[in-house]
Amino acid sequence: xxxxxxxxxxxxxxxxxxxxxxxxxxxxxxxxxxxxxxxxxxxxxxxxxxxxxxxxxxxxxxxxxxxxxxxxxxxxxxxxxxxxxxxxxxxxxxxxxxxxxxxxxxxxxxxxxxxxxxxxxxxxxxxxx
Length: 129
What we know:
The protein has helices at residues 15-39, 98-102, 120-128; strands at residues 83-85, 92-94. It is mainly α. Strands 1-2 form a two-stranded antiparallel ribbon. It is elongated, with a radius of gyration of 24 Å.
């Protein structure tokens, strides 16, 4: 038996209970399509999208030590690990990323994201959403 509320005297649901009931319903909807595909003899579907890996460095080294060394800036601002030339002309990474610098032609570094949220926590959530 599927109960929505674990405690019969409780009128509110917890987040865990809500997700359990919601995913059960969603699973039932997707299961019908999966079973219909198998009945027709289709074993798999062709993926049309591409994979995206988001490298979130929240709490990690600053941008000056990773992807924006600013070696022409004053000593208190520029990277202390130096810089390394990437596989792209005119683009440098921090001195601690030499292997990633060799693969720079295969990755995308976003340096120009702007939003109007001044609080760090909500801003990080906004960027990741």
